[in-house]
Amino acid sequence: MAALRKGAACLSFLRSSSRILFSSRKPVVHKLGKWTNIVYTGIASLTVGAGLCAVPFTQVEDLSHDSLIRRAASLVTGSSSTFLSQTTLALIDAIADYSKAVHTLVALQKRYAASIGKLTPAEEDSIWQVIIGQRAQVNDKLDEYKRFESTWVNAVKLCETAAEAAYTSGAEQASITVHTNIQVAQSQVEEAWKLSQDADKKLAETKVMEIERMAQHAVSLESNDEEDVPDAYLRED
């Protein structure tokens, strides 16, 4: 509004100047071109140099419903992608911590299985206390892993919904970006899952080995007990 007022005032000034210049009682014909040039030069200088008479023409921003919906859809896809990236990182770290805890438990149980029959009761009790503590840590890490996994699944669903909304509203590029983010997140989590599955498999194998060693040790103890029984108790009356 201020610019328009300045432009109107300047235009009025130029019109007044023109009337004064061209209403002289004794016009000089051969000087008319000179005065005309002066007027045109003044107009140009005022318009270009000072900018007082220039009327600004700014491009009107598109505020239609479709445009505003596309912008909102883009914001939603950006927020959902951020949510997905954070939950993906948390889940991968949780899976890694769980896998480490399981591998530690596997090492302890292998050590115990290899030492069956060679430990004193006090040593066996001590190592069992360590194994029980490590099993509790594995359960805690598993709970944390499952909690982040549930949040991550919700984040994937949210991104899929946001991508669909962006596509239907005309924000195709935002939709494509979210789909790409989903694929990357799923690939990263699948790699982490492989580590946890490998750890679980080794834990199951170690448990089977431990059971077999304990069974062998029990048979060995029974054999030793039979050998220690005096012959007099083995004879029939």
Structure in words:
The chain is mostly helical and 237 residues long. It contains 6 helices and no strands.
Uncertain spans: 6-11, 24-58, 232-237
Give the CA-based shape. rod-shaped
Element-level helix/strand string? HHHHHH
Beta content comes to under 5%
Give me the Rg, rounded: 43 Å
Helix count equals 6
Q: Span from first to last CA? A: 127 Å
Total number of β-strand segments? 0
Please identify the oligomeric state.
single chain
* Share of helix, binned: over 70%
Overall mean pLDDT stands at: 76
Counting helices, strands and paired strands, the structural category is mainly alpha
- Largest sheet, described in full? none
Summarize the structure.
The chain has 237 residues and is mainly alpha-helical. Belongs to the Smac/DIABLO protein family. InterPro entries: Smac/DIABLO-like_sf (IPR009062), Smac_DIABLO (IPR015142).
Fold blueprint:
Elements: H1 2-22, H2 32-50, H3 65-114, H4 121-169, H5 172-228, H6 231-234
Helix pairs in contact: 1-2, 3-4, 3-5, 4-5
